[in-house]
Specification:
formyl-coa transferase, domain 3, 12% strand, single chain, elongated, Rossmann fold, 11 strands, 403 residues, alpha/beta, three-stranded antiparallel beta sheet
């Protein structure tokens, strides 16, 4: 077991201060990514805290696993932004920040006095970022939106259903997490722009349009060349046979995407004659007859065990892998050997299991420096560092405790 603070590093965002005014999933995922890469993330919470602190069972109140897994490398400051003393304190943090990220509706941020123009007036170099439900220049700019709503509106829920009459949400908060990643990368781009020009800017990642682009990279399909709505939908993705293949004793994921891989795959499963079949000889022909081809794979792979097929496919250098359950991941030998899951000692929560940072940098690696914070743990420390001290500090902390 490791001491989290002992695993420090000097990530690519070291020296960048992020003021985090986010809750739920999208914003905290974004700011944790920035924190993992070295940024000093100051998470400002209302007196009741981020609601995800209460989302699920916990060893101590306010420290649920749902909160813990997406809030490491952050310092928690409690401020009630409806109180003038707290808003003044927030502005002192703004003065020292490089980035402000919030997850409020635009009108709510404006009412609080923390819209882009107000913060830019205090700190012209600020990168001001948020991820509203919809574009800021459209009629829905201030409507609320959450993961399930965006999954449905973007077409993902319909695609994930068994048929058009039975749409189904993906069993993961895919819209929030993906948009969180996009927001983090967009902030990094804005910081790069600032390094070159000296100018901050406003960054918006609208959830609906972002997930729509994500979905339509492949599913716009022949509508892109004039076929209209009837041309939408990537044929291979929509094949009823595109699923993990049932073997004699389980399931196996197998995929070939180019001519060389198809040659190796069809040879490995005992069907080299299909290479000369006019239905399957080229990529265009295979795509036109993908249901038949996937059907042949499905029938054939059911004739041997998963281990037998895995050995043959590995020898043939064909991409393949098991179908893991969530529990299987904890036992996966590859993840065990590479140390993907890591245990740390949390000051109040004891042993804590976390996933490793997947992105690597040879010169400036990310790191785990701070454990997920207790509510308001760093209020006094952070406020004192920006000049809120003495009687002023006492008033701000008292105001932050009012409910």
């Amino acid at each position: 077991m490791e001491d989290m603070e002992a695993s420090g590093g000097n990530g690519p965002l070291a020296g960048i201060r992020v003021l985090d005014l986010t809750i739920n999933v999208l914003g905290p995922v974004c700011t944790q990514l920035l924190g993992d890469m070295g940024a000093d993330v100051i998470k400002v919470e209302a007196p009741e805290g981020d609601q995800n602190r209460m989302n699920g069972p916990a060893r101590t109140p306010g420290m649920s696993p749902f909160f813990l897994i997406m809030n490491r490398n952050k310092r928690s400051v409690v401020l009630d932004l409806k109180q003038p003393e707290c808003l003044d304190a927030l502005m002192k943090i703004v003065d020292t920040a490089d980035v402000v990220v919030h997850s409020m509706r635009p009108s709510a941020a404006e009412r609080l006095g923390i819209g882009y123009e107000a913060l830019r007036a205090r700190n012209p170099r600020i990168v001001y970022a948020h991820a509203p439900g919809f574009r800021g220049d459209g009629p829905r700019w201030d409507e609320p939106a959450f993961d399930d709503v965006i999954q449905g509106m973007s077409g993902l829920a319909a695609l994930n259903g068994t048929d058009p009459e039975h749409p189904r949400y993906f069993p993961t908060v895919i819209a929030d997490k993906f948009c969180g990643y996009v927001l983090a990368s967009s902030i990094s781009m804005a910081l790069f722009h600032r390094e070159r020009t000296g100018r901050g800017q406003k960054v918006q990642v609208p959830m609906f349009e972002t997930l729509l682009q994500f979905n339509l990279f492949e599913h716009l399909w022949t509508a892109a060349i004039g076929d209209g709505p009837e041309g939408m939908g990537y044929t291979r993705m929509l094949s009823p046979h595109r699923r993990p293949y049932k073997t004699r004793d389980g399931h196996l994921c197998v995929l070939a995407v180019n001519d060389a891989q198809w040659r190796r795959l069809l040879t490995a499963i005992g069907h080299p004659h299909l290479l000369d079949d006019p239905r399957f000889g080229t990529m265009t022909q295979r795509m036109q007859n993908i249901n038949e081809l996937y059907g042949i794979l499905s029938d054939t792979l059911g004739q041997r065990s998963s281990v037998e097929w895995s050995e043959l496919l590995k020898q043939a250098d064909v991409p393949h892998g098991p179908v893991n359950t969530l529990a299987d991941l904890m036992r996966d030998p590859y993840l065990r050997d590479t140390g993907y899951f890591r245990e740390y000692e949390h000051p109040s929560e004891g042993k804590l299991l976390m996933t490793s940072i997947p992105v690597s940098f040879t010169d400036s690696p990310g790191s785990y420096r701070l454990p997920p914070p207790r509510l308001g743990e760093h209020t006094e420390e952070v406020l004192a560092s920006v000049g809120v001290d003495g009687e002023n500090l006492g008033r701000v902390m008292a105001a932050g405790r009012r409910k």
